[in-house]
């Protein structure tokens, strides 16, 4: 479960708290009703065959309304006042639950009593089909969006965890109570059989919820009163609902995923008995598999949000379906009970997480006026899919038995449950992937990196669109590697070609950046204190964010060539490798700051730190980073080289001890490939111009400043 504090926070919201109490009560009623109505019907007859028929017909009658009424139930929830809809439904259920034991009191003929029980159950179920979407659609209106997930955790845990157990206990308690008060079976008066008492009790729970909703949760009413007059006819609303589900990618993806999960679940349930046999695990194995499946469900619902952290809920949903279905494949292949138990646990975890994220997405992202129909659609579909897959798969498995498989070197006994589970698993995985594609809200962001990042609290965000025309070139390297010199070279060459060139740098290309630059680079004697590593990383990131947004992107957008002296790699090398902050964190920070803007080309000027520092030293006072140890600069150098080798197509690595003009040639040659074909240029000619310009600009005959070891090309 989410933190206790979060639970308390949702329960502090009064209308939700009351609705939760109502839900707990009516769900207790539902479970009691399910148990009691069927045992009640069975108790009316003696022989076991007739008992079976009675039991079965009550169950069937509970599923039928889903087929008949499911499609229109949502129209009620969207069209009429949801509070009144809920109240009327509860009153109907109150009356019809009471009518079952009442009928037994009045009528003597047990066939009639059973028939009435079936009719009453049918009506009760029909009502539930209308009540549930109204309730589901109302919940998101009672809560802030951020609390919806926790609220759903609480609701699901109540409906599927607490109340079924409680219902069982209540039934046992009633049984004992009846015996204590009225004595054993033969001497009891009519109408107080335990199942009858349960039905009376059940009837009262619905009266209680009707009263609470009517008087206590007025907030459920009172939405968009103005829109009501403009409502189209019911039939129109119904077709609109279908159209909405089939045309909205999010809802289509959700529906597909949920149905896939339920189909997989249905096959697992339908084949479970035979599956346990195929593991030679018997009844105890069967029970164990079921128990772990439910345990997994609980874990998925309770711990899911904590585990996936900040992951996009849409992605989480798709991932959960794939996890559940993939684990069905584990079940299909498991030859040992331990493996099967692990598989069942994972099926449960995946299904529980899918259930939670699916409900939350549906509640949070479907607009209020469509929500009832969307929930009704899912409610109907899941019941139908579940019923079909459970019955079909148990029939198929029952008929299929097991086959003897001879592979020549080894022989196997393959139960027909295995291929069936495998098919269900594959089908589910495909459904999950398709669902994910339909509704992915982070297209283009690598999936697994995002999942891992999110689990660690640092989700990746989709890149902001990059302007198509401009070219972004970055120079990287250690101190004194010659970046500024090469930037000037390249800029002049491209300007000579008539290109719009923007020369910039990090840190400090903007007025804000200037101030950040002095905060981060001025020596401690000036600033009065040493910048701590994380603060340093954040300051560079802040400079970068501002720089990209106010200088780089606008220039690229108008088609300019942007040449920057340093960019993201400097942070990875200096703050990551140099300061030894975790590189993935620094990388995430930069990605966030830049909106994912990557350079088209990074020119890495690689140089021995000692040589570079000597060159830089000639420029005067060393800044904070220049005065770091040689080991620091060694780490920085190798970090740059690692980055380049990880993505060679984007990098040009040059030996910076070469003369400046030959480096410039190399750079130009590479940059040429980035230009549109019609702008290809004659290198020799431009280089001559460039050499002249640079000499004129700097006054340096650069090529004469060759350090020893440098060679002319
Ligand atoms: N290829 C080169 N060979 C020798 N000296 C160079 C070369 N490129 C630049 N220099 C000199 O090295 C010093 C630092 O160059 P600069 O371009 O400012 O490096 P950075 O911007 O990487 O710190 C300058 O005095 C510059 O003239
Ligand atoms: C952009 C950036 C620079 N730096 C450091 C590297 C440099 O030592 C310093 C300033 O860079 P720069 O202005 O390029 O200095 P120089 O001309 O001496 O190479 O900032 C980082 O540590 N992280 C970063 O993200």
From TrEMBL:
Domain Thymidylate kinase-like span(s) in chain numbering: 475-661
Q: Which organism is it from?
A: Dactylosporangium cerinum
Q: Which residues form a coiled coil?
A: none
Q: What does this protein do?
A: Phosphorylation of dTMP to form dTDP in both de novo and salvage pathways of dTTP synthesis.
Catalyzed reaction equations? dTMP + ATP = dTDP + ADP
Which subcellular locations apply to this protein? Answer: Cell membrane
Q: Name one Pfam family in it.
A: Thymidylate_kin
Q: Which residues cross the membrane?
A: 20-41, 53-77, 84-107, 113-134, 154-174, 197-217, 250-272, 284-304, 316-334, 340-362, 374-399, 419-436
> Know the name of this protein?
Thymidylate kinase
Family, as annotated: Belongs to the thymidylate kinase family.
This protein's major location comes to membrane
């Amino acid at each position: 479960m989410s933190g206790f504090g979060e639970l308390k926070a949702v329960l502090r919201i009064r209308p939700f708290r009351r609705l939760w109490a109502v839900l707990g009560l009516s769900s207790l009623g539902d479970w009691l009703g399910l148990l009691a109505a069927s045992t009640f019907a069975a108790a009316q007859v003696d022989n076991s065959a007739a008992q079976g028929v009675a039991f079965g017909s009550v169950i069937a009658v509970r599923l039928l309304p889903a087929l008949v009424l499911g499609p229109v139930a949502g129209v009620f929830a969207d069209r009429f006042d949801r509070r009144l809809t809920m109240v009327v439904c509860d009153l109907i259920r109150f009356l019809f639950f009471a009518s079952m034991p009442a009928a037994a009191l009045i009528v003597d003929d047990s066939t009639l009593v059973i028939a009435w029980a079936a009719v009453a159950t049918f009506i009760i179920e029909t009502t539930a089909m209308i009540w549930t979407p109204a309730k589901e659609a109302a919940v998101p209106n009672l809560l802030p969006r951020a609390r919806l997930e926790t609220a759903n955790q609480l609701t699901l845990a109540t409906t599927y965890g607490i109340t079924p157990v409680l219902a069982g206990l209540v039934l046992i308690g009633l049984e004992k109570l009846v015996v204590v008060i009225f004595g054993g079976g033969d001497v009891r008066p009519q109408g107080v059989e335990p199942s009858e008492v349960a039905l009376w009790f059940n009837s009262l729970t619905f009266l209680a919820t009707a009263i609470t909703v009517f008087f206590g949760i007025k907030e459920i009413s009172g939405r968009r009163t103005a829109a009501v007059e403009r409502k189209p006819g019911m039939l129109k609303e119904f077709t609109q609902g279908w159209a909405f589900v089939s045309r909205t990618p999010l809802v289509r993806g959700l529906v597909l995923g949920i149905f896939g999960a339920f189909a997989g679940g249905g096959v697992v349930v339908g084949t479970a008995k035979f599956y346990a046999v195929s593991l030679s695990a018997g009844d105890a194995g069967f029970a164990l598999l079921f128990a772990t499946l439910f345990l997994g469900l609980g874990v998925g619902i309770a711990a899911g949000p904590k585990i996936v952290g900040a992951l996009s809920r849409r992605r989480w949903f798709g991932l959960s379906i794939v996890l559940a279905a993939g684990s069905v494949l584990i079940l299909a292949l498991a030859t040992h009970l331990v493996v099967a138990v692990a598989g069942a646990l994972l099926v449960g975890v995946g299904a529980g997480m899918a259930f939670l994220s699916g409900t939350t997405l549906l509640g949070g992202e479907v607009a209020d006026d469509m929500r009832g129909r969307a929930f009704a659609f899912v409610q109907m579909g899941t019941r139908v899919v579940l019923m079909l897959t459970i019955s079909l798969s148990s029939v198929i498995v029952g008929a299929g038995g097991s086959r003897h498989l001879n592979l020549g070197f080894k022989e196997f006994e393959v139960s027909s449950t295995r291929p069936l589970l495998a098919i269900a698993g594959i089908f589910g995985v495909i459904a999950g992937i398709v669902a994910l594609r339909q509704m992915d809200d982070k297209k283009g962001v690598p999936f697994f990196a995002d999942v891992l990042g999110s689990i660690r609290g640092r989700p990746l965000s989709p890149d902001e669109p990059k302007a198509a025309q401009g070219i972004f070139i970055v120079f990287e390297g250690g101190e004194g590697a010659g970046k500024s010199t090469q930037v000037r070279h390249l800029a002049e060459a491209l300007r000579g070609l008539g290109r719009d060139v923007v020369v910039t740098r990090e840190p400090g290309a903007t007025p804000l950046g200037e101030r950040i630059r002095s905060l981060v680079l001025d020596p401690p004697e000036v600033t009065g204190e040493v910048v701590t590593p994380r603060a340093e990383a954040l300051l560079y990131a802040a400079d970068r964010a501002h720089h990209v947004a106010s200088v780089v992107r606008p220039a690229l957008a108008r088609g300019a060539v942007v040449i920057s002296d340093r960019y993201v790699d400097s942070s990875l090398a200096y703050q990551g490798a140099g300061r030894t902050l975790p590189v993935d964190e620094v990388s995430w920070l930069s990605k966030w700051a830049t909106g994912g803007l990557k350079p088209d080309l990074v020119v890495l000027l690689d140089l021995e730190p000692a040589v570079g520092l000597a060159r830089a030293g000639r420029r005067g006072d060393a800044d904070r980073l220049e005065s770091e140890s040689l080991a620091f600069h060694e780490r920085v150098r190798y970090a740059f080289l690692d980055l380049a080798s990880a993505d060679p197509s984007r990098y040009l690595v040059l030996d910076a001890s070469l003369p400046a003009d030959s480096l410039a040639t190399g750079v130009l040659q590479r940059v040429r490939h980035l230009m549109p074909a019609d702008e290809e240029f004659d290198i020799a000619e431009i280089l001559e111009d460039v050499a002249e310009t640079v000499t004129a600009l700097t006054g340096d005959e650069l090529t004469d400043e060759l350090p020893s070891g440098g060679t002319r090309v």
